[in-house]
Write a structure and sequence with these properties.
The chain crosses the membrane at residues 246-265, 297-315, 327-347, 367-400, 421-439, 445-466, 478-500, 533-551, 572-589, 601-619, 657-681, 702-722. The protein is of the alpha/beta class and 728 residues long. The protein has three domains: 7-226, SGNH hydrolase (Rossmann fold, 3-Layer(aba) Sandwich); 294-695, no CATH class; 697-727. It has 28 helices and 13 strands. The strands form four sheets. Strands 2-3-1-4-5-6 form a six-stranded mixed beta sheet, sandwiched between helices. Strands 9-13-12 form a three-stranded antiparallel beta sheet. Helix 26 crosses helix 27. The longest helix is centred in the middle third of the chain and has 30 residues, at 242-271.
């Protein structure tokens, strides 16, 4: 993966550095493109066959181009001065030349022999420089012979290959019994093989290609200094943190413990094997099948989780697998969308109940939304604004379901017990907490889980605080309905206050220990931005749930199988309004000018398309009666899919794509997707199993477990503080 350096990043990396480019017109091209990363306003002017200096005095960056079009005594003298001067030598030297030698000597074999002799005399000097500086020898790019002018016709690709072979053979064998320190910069040659046909003269690369070469050169030098996440080249593997080492020990012990338990259990099972009655020839059953013990479930789950976390680490932290940049095209996004839509429609079944937003339907909704979001991420479709705005609605719809689902549960069940709260919090956060430790990432990095967690707590506090108003209590009097609406109005007031008071919001979430959860890169701005982007939609979900459940209780809705939700006339009118509203939002989203303007309006208008979809999906009786089992299956593991994609499907913290099988993109995506989905499903099972063990229903046992969990998190905070100090 190649990180695209901005000028301020480049200056940060190259502060107090001197970079020298020495060679012919092709090296001059590379010099210009390199300098333009540092100063985009730099113009290509002056005598092309002379030295060209560049200096940024504020950043103390100096970049020079030295005109030496042939590998001869002149170039050797320049390099010799650097090699013998211990003070003034450049930090980076980029050298290369050959085409002038071919042109001047008409491509003769004698010129090639002389080139080899000259580069042999320069090699020890370059090797000496490479011990203290970064030295790169640029291999010659191929040419497009059909476009070459008459005085360059002797520069053939055959000759260029011969000169490259000479340079490689000499420079790689310049040191005995050790590897050469001079690095071969061959990427420009590889780029030229694909793009030289776009050249204006057949010799020099088009501007976009040389910009890529310069950016790769910047990556080669700066990645090890600035360590950008999306620059996978030339970085050392990050050292293991204390928490990662402790996690590795814990999972290793869990695996060993499970193996010991399994061996002991198997031996005990063999001893109790049914024996054959010799007289009757029948087996005597000595034992009854015993249920699986909680200890076995615990050890087995931790064993599987340990192996899965090892895979996560290898994929996105160990530099074991390659990664590649995303490149968006309409086909890479829309073709997979059509494909999964066809699959989803093909696998349809009848629902168990025909209520609005029944369980199968909400699972289906989560499923297809999650699949669209996954395709959106892997295709890099965030660069296409209409797609970005529609995916923002999908994220909002997930939060809408959070408001709808949790409000409905508390309103109907009236269960505000601590067991329910702990179960939900555990299921939401277990995987993310483990990933924070194993992958050394802050909690806010997995932004969606903190978002859903905070909104769940907001819903719980809103409804649990005095006076607790639930459906059973409110049935007798409209007064209680009014009381609940007042609660919701107060919640809306608080949301509006925090949305337009960034200072107050940041003060609240900058308090320790909240800051440890919600800070990213030293501040809570990212958290404020994420929260503010969908600030009203959970409230809309709660209000919709209250309205729907009230109408349902008063038997205003017709939810029988095959029946429209309202009378035919009202149903047709609402369906028409819903379709128009849905399309109107899509037209508006497609005509947005920029993300900032769209994001400002999004919190207020996203509910339009969400409600339109719900009505279109639920007003016709036949639509409520069926669901896609394909989408519903993915919906049940949607949270795990969203979280796991960060490291084992995408890569470099979602900025790139994981490459398990290089050179075959289609096979790679099939294999990595299969593993990714299997892992997400397995983690869902592990989370459910551990939730039953760690969050028991008995209150006294639960309180003891909560005390242990609190001690665990206190330990994490202490270890995190120790790590932060050591990093600082």
């Amino acid at each position: 993966m190649m990180h695209k350096y901005k000028y301020n990043e480049a200056k940060n990396c190259l502060v107090d550095k001197h970079i020298a480019f020495i060679g012919d017109s092709r090296i001059r091209q590379l010099f210009y493109s390199f300098v333009k990363i540092i100063n985009p306003q730099f113009k290509e002017e002056g005598n092309k066959h002379e030295n060209i200096p560049f200096e940024d005095k504020i950043a103390s960056v100096k970049v020079d181009f030295l005109w030496h079009p042939e590998v001869n005594g002149s170039m050797k003298q320049c390099i010799k001065v650097w090699a013998e001067d211990s003070v003034a030598k450049p930090h980076v030297i980029v050298a290369g030349a050959a085409t002038w030698s071919i042109k001047i000597h008409n491509g003769s074999n004698e010129a090639l022999s002389q080139y080899k002799m000259n580069i042999t005399s320069i090699a020890p000097l370059l090797e000496k420089l490479a011990k203290t500086s970064d030295v790169y020898w640029v291999l010659q790019d191929p040419v497009y012979e059909d476009l070459l002018s008459e005085n360059r016709k002797m520069i053939t690709n055959e000759k260029i290959d011969a000169y490259n072979e000479a340079a490689v053979s000499v420079l790689n064998s310049s040191t005995r019994n050790s590897k050469s320190h001079v690095k071969m910069f061959s990427v420009s040659k590889l780029i030229a093989q694909e793009t030289i046909m776009e050249s204006l003269d057949g010799l020099h690369l088009p501007e976009s290609s040389r910009e890529t070469s310069a950016m790769i050169l910047m990556n080669v030098y700066c990645n090890k200094i600035l360590k950008p996440v999306d620059g996978s080249c030339c970085q050392p593997r990050p050292p293991l943190t204390l928490m990662q080492k402790l996690a590795a020990c814990f999972f290793t012990l869990s695996i060993v413990g499970y193996l010991i338990f399994y061996i002991i259990y198997r031996n005990a099972h063999r001893k109790n094997k049914p024996c054959t009655d010799l007289e009757s020839g029948e087996e005597k059953k000595n034992i009854i099948n015993t249920p699986v013990s909680p200890l076995e479930i615990l050890l087995q789950s931790l064993c599987k989780l340990g192996l899965i976390m090892a895979y996560f680490y290898m994929c996105d932290r160990a530099n074991l697998f390659m990664k590649e940049n995303k490149f968006y095209t309409h086909s890479t996004f829309f073709i997979p969308i059509i494909y999964i839509l066809v699959l989803g429609v093909f696998y349809n079944e009848n629902t168990k109940e025909t209520k609005v937003l029944n369980r199968e339907q909400t699972d289906e909704w989560k499923g297809w939304m999650q699949l669209v979001i996954l395709i959106y991420h892997i295709s890099g479709a965030s660069t296409f604004l209409p797609v970005y705005m529609h995916v923002r609605v999908l994220v909002a719809a997930y939060l809408f379901q959070t408001g709808y689902g949790h409000f409905s549960y508390f309103w109907v069940k009236g269960d505000f017990g601590i067991h329910r709260v702990c179960q939900v919090l555990f299921r939401l956060n277990f995987l993310v907490v483990v990933l924070c430790i194993v992958m050394d990432r802050p909690y806010q990095f997995y932004y969606f889980v903190p978002l859903v967690t905070v909104w769940f707590m907001v819903i719980y506090v809103t409804l649990a605080l005095w006076p607790q108003i639930i459906q059973k209590k409110a049935n007798g009097s409209c007064f209680w309905h009014f009381g609940l609406l007042l609660k919701l109005a107060f919640l809306l007031l608080c949301i509006c206050f925090l949305a337009y008071s960034q200072g107050a919001f940041e003060k609240i979430f900058s308090l320790w220990p909240l800051s440890k959860c919600f800070e990213l890169k030293g501040n809570v701005y990212e958290w404020w931005f994420r929260w503010r982007l969908d600030r009203y939609v959970v409230f809309h979900g709660m209000l919709f749930a209250f309205t729907y459940l009230t109408l349902q209780k008063r038997q205003i809705l017709s939810e029988g199988k095959g029946e429209p939700l309202f009378s035919n006339k009202i149903s047709n009118v609402l369906l028409f309004i819903s379709v128009v509203s849905f399309l109107t939002y899509s037209i508006w989203a497609s005509s947005c000018k920029n993300k900032a303007e769209c994001n400002e309006l999004h919190p207020s208008v996203s509910v339009v398309q969400i409600l339109a979809f719900i009505l279109i999906r639920n007003i016709p009786g036949y639509a409520r009666s069926v669901y896609s089992s394909f989408f519903a299956w993915f919906g049940k593991i949607s949270l795990e899919l969203f979280t796991c994609q960060y490291h084992i499907w995408l890569a470099a913290d979602t900025r790139g794509i994981l490459v398990l099988i290089p050179g075959n993109p289609m096979l790679n995506i099939i294999v990595s997707t299969f593993i990714f989905v299997c892992v997400a499903h397995e983690i869902s099972q592990i989370t459910n199993d551990l939730a039953q063990i760690i969050i028991p229903k008995d209150n006294s046992s639960l309180l003891k477990r909560l005390a242990c969990i609190a001690a665990f998190f206190c330990g994490l905070l202490i270890l995190s503080s120790i790590q932060d100090k050591s990093r600082y």
